[in-house]
Specification:
- The structure is a homodimer.
- By secondary structure, chain A is α/β, with parallel strands linked by helices.
- The first copy, chain A, has an eleven-stranded mixed beta sheet, with helices on both faces.
- The interface between A and B is large, with 60 and 60 residues.
- Chains A, B: Catalyzes the reversible formation of acyl-phosphate (acyl-PO(4)) from acyl-[acyl-carrier-protein] (acyl-ACP). This enzyme utilizes acyl-ACP as fatty acyl donor, but not acyl-CoA.
- Chains A, B: Pfam families: FA_synthesis (PF02504).
- Chains A, B: It catalyses: a fatty acyl-[ACP] + phosphate = an acyl phosphate + holo-[ACP].
């Protein structure tokens, strides 16, 4: 599906995220310098062209603009927004993937709208009942791990959790470059038999599968990087992710408030600022590249809403690696063969 | 059920927690100075007496020692531990509550063992199918809110979530002193209709109840203090709590590592230490008093495993307020009357 001259064609949502259109355009331009990629800029034509000219500093526009006159706002109810805004950048971008005009779509727009449009326009891969939102979360050693489902599907059964594991393993191998990915199950205790019915059954199935299964892992241990892939249902994963974000934010807010109250601390905080910034960045999963809707029959990457150009570029980089690794094809080969050789255990 | 001279009799697990027996003894002594309370010290007689004498500095021991020759370690599998260690401080302490010799039991020992012993020896209140672990979690404004279930029961249905809400409201009113507690439901989106089947049904029931229901709240918003009581099932609550703890710990570890690498930052960190300590304390739910197994037919408070004397004393303080507020009696009055006046809405 590669485009002109062996380049992957990645559609970029120019209107997605808090820093649109500046950050998506800058990120796309950065990606063009780093990877063999052709960008399809999706957004209102005049606005996109103006931003491109402003950043490139010339009159010739790199890549191709695909017009989309509407924008889905973060507050729009996803499903209704798709109906009311059929010419939005999200719908147009995903349609490009569906129609084979783009190899992947990258957006910092509304997760719910991307999810809804993805399900509606692309559908799921054969054998996959529900897609999962997967993202690389940070670990203390900087390696990171893939966690899914972070909230694409509110319900899941044990078979679906096994499918998430399979898809995660393929992603970890083909995109993150982990030769023999280990899988863990998020749970409320490390021993087998812990958790509710769903998690006890998922544990049994994963233990019986051909996957390299590391057993249960508690949310507290995630930062130690207990596995390459951690699976859970979308409700639990979304709560865990938002709990982590909440603590991070609370931590910085309190730190700021406390520092502001003390002159000496204010001086010290100035000296510490680069340290604090680095710590914050290490804990920010947005830095580790985009999230991906695994299980959709098409590549849709979701960058953090506050993505800067580097985060957008990283999202495009992940899309390129997914194309190069023939991710969807490999997932198709592996689903339903959890006990077989297709999972590459020990390869 | 008050003891001698109008004092509440609180049994304290002298062997529970990382800092036993020093912290439980010091915490108990502090509580005796602050509240009308008589302490029953539960643990190996000679060891408890020696620690008491060491801390009091005399030969007369304040309160009464209730001998318990065994200790359940944090790593012991809870249910097996109860069988193998029938004379452990946890079993003896909860038996004191069951037999009416103590009004409450406070322990920094194994949550699982406390839970198992509580269910086995005390059972649940009439109408309550499963108990819930409730704790006051921190908010940015320092008020805090009660969250439950944090992991007492891995399964719950919508009716049980409503019962958690009722018990939480009674606790918030009688123990935390909130005159008209508001309840929120933890969920993955703020609108009604969000979440999985369990949470959609719980939302409907809570909206129909006589409770002051604030709707759904996302884990990310918890630190803003969206309600006095936040309910969820024990699996989700436990994952959320541990995710928050994990980020907190990761945050401090990274900060330390980064600071150690830079001499100037090391100096600044010295100046900032009191600030960092204060922030850490504000985010530490252990500071806000003990967790409680709500729904058991008896008062069992669980302090954090790393509790210092102040945290233990706060746990005893919460026990005293629960006794004074006749918590169990009030819960009994309110269960099954979620649509009635017993909930004190608008009182």
């Amino acid at each position: 599906m590669s485009g002109r001259a062996g380049r992957w064609r990645v559609a970029v949502d120019v209107m997605g995220g808090d820093r649109a259109p500046g950050a998506p355009v800058a990120g796309g331009l950065e990606a063009m310098r780093r990877w063999p990629v052709e960008i399809l800029w999706v957004g209102p034509e005049a606005q996109v062209a103006a931003e491109l000219r402003r950043q490139v500093g010339g009159s010739r526009v790199p890549g191709r603009i695909v017009p989309a006159s509407q924008v889905i706002e973060p507050g729009d109810p996803p499903v209704a927004a798709l109906r009311r805004k059929p010419d939005s950048s999200i719908v147009v971008g995903i349609r490009l993937v569906r129609d084979g005009e783009a190899d992947a779509f990258v957006s910092a727009g509304s997760t719910g709208a991307l999810m809804a449009a993805g399900k509606l326009l692309l559908g799921t891969l054969p054998g996959i009942a529900r897609p999962a939102l997967a993202a690389v979360l940070p670990t203390l050693d900087g390696r990171g791990f893939l966690m899914l489902d972070l909230g694409a599907s509110a319900e899941a059964d044990a078979e679906q959790l096994v499918h998430y594991a399979v898809m995660g393993v393929v992603y970890a191998r083909e995109v993150l470059g982990r030769p023999a990915p280990r899988v863990a199950l998020l749970n409320i205790g490390s021993e087998a038999g812990k958790g509710n019915r769903l998690y006890r059954e998922a544990h049994e199935r994963l233990a019986r599968s051909g996957l390299d299964f590391a057993g249960n892992v508690e949310a507290r241990e995630l930062f130690a990087g207990p596995a390459d892939v951690v699976v859970c249902d979308g409700f639990t994963g979304n709560v865990a992710l938002k709990a982590m974000e909440g603590v991070g934010e609370a931590c910085w807010k309190l730190l700021k408030a406390e520092v502001a109250r003390r002159p000496l601390a204010r001086l010290a905080a100035g000296l510490l600022r680069p340290v604090l910034r680095r710590v914050r960045r290490q804990l920010d999963y947005g830095e580790y590249g985009a999230a991906l809707f695994l299980g959709l029959d098409g590549l849709v990457f979701k960058c953090h809403g506050s993505s800067d150009p580097r985060a957008i570029a990283n999202g495009i980089g992940a899309a390129v690696r997914a194309c190069q690794g023939r991710l969807l094809h490999r997932i198709g080969e592996s689903i339903g063969k959890e006990d077989g050789e297709a999972l590459g255990r020990g390869r």
